[in-house]
Design goal:
The complex is a heterodimer.
Chain A lengths: L8 H5 L5 H7 L2 H11 L5 H28 L14 E3 L5 E3 L4 H8 L1 H34 L2 H12 L6 H12 L4 H8 L13 H25 L4 H8 L4 H12 L1 H16 L3 H6 L7 H11 L3 H31 L1
Antiparallel strand pairs in A: 1-2
Helix pairs in contact in A: 4-16, 5-16, 6-10, 6-13, 10-13, 11-12, 13-16, 15-16
Chain B lengths: L23 E10 L2 E11 L4 E5 L6 H9 L6 E6 L2 E2 L10 E4 L11 H11 L4 H14 L15 H13 L5 E5 L7 H18 L2 E6 L2 H7 L2 E6 L2 E6 L1 H6 L4 H6 L4 E10 L4 E5 L4 E5 L10 E6 L4 E4 L10 E11 L3 E8 L4 E7 L13 E6 L5 E3 L2
Helix pairs in contact in B: 2-3, 2-4
Classes of the chains: A mainly alpha, B alpha+beta.
Chain lengths: 332, 381
């Protein structure tokens, strides 16, 4: 039956149970016409794909075009605070104004590229720490008794039941000078002055690693769980010790999971705003924060949009590289 | 019991020599998984250069026994010796054993040659020697031109040969094979079976093969160990197992068989007469049987040892019964007849199709079944 769906409309109708329809369709010109017209009618497949495409167009593509438009505008004191992209002059000319100085400004002012670099650094090391912490956890989960796996999986996802914002706030209570951690250490007599943890890069790392760890564990778990355990037996059988088998068999086979997990942490951490805002100090320079400042404090919408477009380009480059790596890892 | 001779019997039959040292000694080995006893007090000797098949249905413990030899499972009781060395506590990567896995377990991220080279790399074999040996091994399994392919680019038969090459590259003295031909189609199986036997002869490796396929076991092995419910029920050459099964289980498991319940009515040192209500006749067997008189027993008759005819044979007093043909399965070389005996029991008879356009037996024909006095196998257990 499924093959019928791929036939042109006219050929499909020729199999109709209705004798009248069959007779009409079997007249060659009518059949050819129907076959031709059928190409333009949206089929069932087209309709199914249409919904997600429309969603993406309305909520991603159009906003992106608007941001792109604002990024090449002039900042003016008006409502909204940027100039129009085009206007019709008195003589009837269409005048398009592209102001590229916003982008040039990003390059000239050291603040921006420093913020970019720092964001990349923090996102990279956060992802690395997530990998170091997440790999043993995912490995343990994948090797646990099947009955336990779902329980463990649920425990990993459980934090999502509480608001992200609340969980980050909770870290303030833990990391504060008179927070829980310092109070315990003081109480035990291990330190005699509170350790300053809040408003430091350390707190930002803690916040990001804590918040994004599940995004690392889940793809790693998937990769490790589907791995055939007899491969490790085969390696041992050929004289390979367990640790070497881990390095030469398990790690390469979980590479797609490593790449996916790394990107899932790295990309959102790159533009992270809430965590550095709540836990970081004034010297924690991250691009998400810079963007927020431009937009709300300076009301510099065009510059803020340029910052956003530049960040998006960076993410696109990273995703492209990730995609290539992933495909190569999966082909292996 | 008379000794059956395997048509291709090896020159030596070390299991008959009381002074021969077994290469593998399995002593009272038991393995439990929770409440389930997978291997129950098994003792077995396997000799060098044997091609030993462990044969049994699924869950009979044959794979567990093999995995204990490889070191993937530790026995809960008993001892395992390979080449005189107690294997207790020796991890798989230190055993002088290689295994070919049922799923082949090829490393999917490595090329064919890297898969084959893996074992040698673990021993830090010098590069030049390593690749030379890999190349020679790939030539032997006829995969020379596939060296740089990945496993997923190969067919099932090719993968199987990579797995074989990988398990042979370290020249192990003992090779364990878990259902080696299970995933192959019939034609490929047959050619691979002979290939395996050639390799075994060429390299002088001791093979222990696990299989549920009796045909495979019959073709390959020097000896077969039939397993049931965690125990070895009979060990013998393929001929012994087929022609002289010692239990109803073995007779029934290997090949097809007609089983007639009966009891001894007359016996002497060199013959026995059994009256069977199921067969509907007296069965005469031309050798003595070690069974108490009047004990309930069964006579097993292989379908190919029964002659089927429409005319009554000369002597219908013994080893002859009759019935009506209920079904015929034409297999080309032979035909299988299902005959409903006059006693109500269904008997199976195979007959080679010797002549084309023969006046063959048809459905609903009344036929006589008769057999030679040496054909019946008396089974007491």
């Amino acid at each position: 039956m499924s093959r019928v769906g791929y036939l042109p409309l006219g050929d499909r109708l020729a199999m109709s149970a209705e004798p009248l329809v069959r007779t009409l369709v079997n007249i060659p010109p009518i059949r050819l016409l129907l076959n031709f017209l059928g190409r333009f009618a949206p089929g069932g497949r087209g309709l199914v794909i249409l919904v997600p495409y429309a969603w993406l167009a309305f909520f991603f593509l159009i906003p992106f075009v608007i941001v792109l438009k604002i990024s090449v505008a002039d900042q003016i004191i008006a409502q909204p605070p940027y100039s129009a992209l085009y206007e019709i002059t008195e003589k009837g000319y269409l005048m398009i104004k592209l102001n590229l100085s916003n982008y040039k400004f990003l390059l000239d002012d050291a603040l921006y590229w420093k913020a970019y670099l720092n964001s990349v650094k923090i996102a990279f090391f956060s992802a690395l720490m997530c990998l170091i912490i997440g790999y043993p956890m995912a490995y343990g989960m994948a090797r646990a008794q099947p009955a336990w796996r779902n329980v463990l999986l649920m425990l990993v996802v459980l934090p999502f039941w509480t608001s992200f914002l609340l969980r980050v706030y909770a870290w303030i209570g833990l990391l504060n000078n008179n927070g829980i951690i310092n109070n315990i250490l003081l109480g035990l007599g291990l330190i005699d002055r509170p350790i300053v943890m809040m408003k430091t890069d350390f707190a930002v790392y803690v916040g990001i690693v804590y918040s994004y760890l599940p995004f690392m564990i889940l793809p790693l778990y998937t990769a490790l769980e589907k791995m055939d355990m007899t491969l490790l037996e085969a390696a041992a059988d050929l004289g390979c010790r367990p640790f070497k088998a881990f390095v030469t068999i398990t790690v390469p086979l979980s590479l797609p999971g490593i790449i996916a997990g790394f990107s899932l942490v790295f990309i959102p951490a790159l533009g992270e705003f809430v965590i550095p805002d709540l836990l970081g100090g004034t010297d924690t320079l991250m691009i998400g924060h810079v963007l927020w400042d431009e937009f709300f404090s300076n009301r510099a919408w065009p510059v803020a949009s340029a910052v956003a477009i530049a960040m998006l380009s960076l993410v696109l480059v990273i995703m492209f590289v990730q995609n290539r790596l992933q495909r190569r890892a999966e082909a292996a | 019991m008379t000794e059956g001779k395997h048509p291709e019997a090896p020159v030596s039959e070390p299991w008959k020599d009381p002074h021969a040292t077994p290469y593998i000694r399995i002593q009272n080995v038991t393995k439990k998984f929770g409440d389930f006893t997978a291997v129950n007090n098994v003792s077995l000797n396997i000799y060098q250069q044997e091609l030993f098949c462990l044969l049994g249905g699924s869950g009979c413990g044959k794979s567990t026994l093999l995995r204990m030899l490889a070191g993937f499972e530790e026995p809960d009781g008993g001892q395992l010796f390979i080449d005189g060395q107690d294997m207790a506590g020796i991890p798989p990567y230190q055993r002088p054993v290689n295994m070919m896995f049922q799923s082949y377990a090829l490393f999917p991220h490595m090329t064919v040659q890297d898969n084959v080279a893996f074992g040698l790399k673990q021993d830090n074999t010098p590069k030049s020697e390593l690749w030379e040996r890999v190349k020679a091994m790939l030539e032997m399994v006829k995969l020379g031109s596939f060296a740089s392919r990945k496993p997923h680019q190969l067919s099932g038969g090719q993968r199987q040969r990579v797995a074989l090459a990988r398990s042979l590259i370290k020249q192990p003295k003992l090779l364990l094979l878990d259902e080696p031909l299970g995933a192959l189609d019939k034609k490929l199986r047959e050619s691979t079976q002979f290939e395996l036997m050639n390799i075994q002869e060429k390299l002088g490796v001791t093979f222990v093969v696990v299989t549920h396929d009796q045909e495979e076991a019959m073709t390959l092995s020097t000896r077969i160990g039939v397993m049931n419910a965690g125990q070895i029920v009979q060990v013998g050459t393929p001929t012994e197992i087929y022609e002289f099964p010692t239990s109803r289980f073995v007779a029934d498991f290997i090949g097809s068989v007609n089983m007639f319940q009966g009891r001894i009515v007359d016996e002497d040192n060199d013959y026995v007469r059994i009256s069977s209500d199921e067969a509907g006749c007296t069965i005469f067997i031309n050798h003595g049987v070690a069974a108490p008189p009047s004990a309930a027993l069964a006579v097993a008759l292989r379908p190919e040892k029964i002659v089927i005819s429409r005319e009554a044979p000369a002597d219908t007093t013994e080893n002859c019964t009759h019935g009506v043909v209920e079904g015929i399965a034409y297999m080309g070389d032979v035909s299988v007849y299902n005959v409903r005996l006059h006693t109500g029991k269904l008997a199976k008879v195979t007959q080679p199709n010797l002549v084309r356009h023969a006046d063959t037996i048809n459905w609903d024909d009344h036929v006589y079944l008769h057999w030679h006095a040496a054909s019946g196998i008396v089974l007491t257990v």
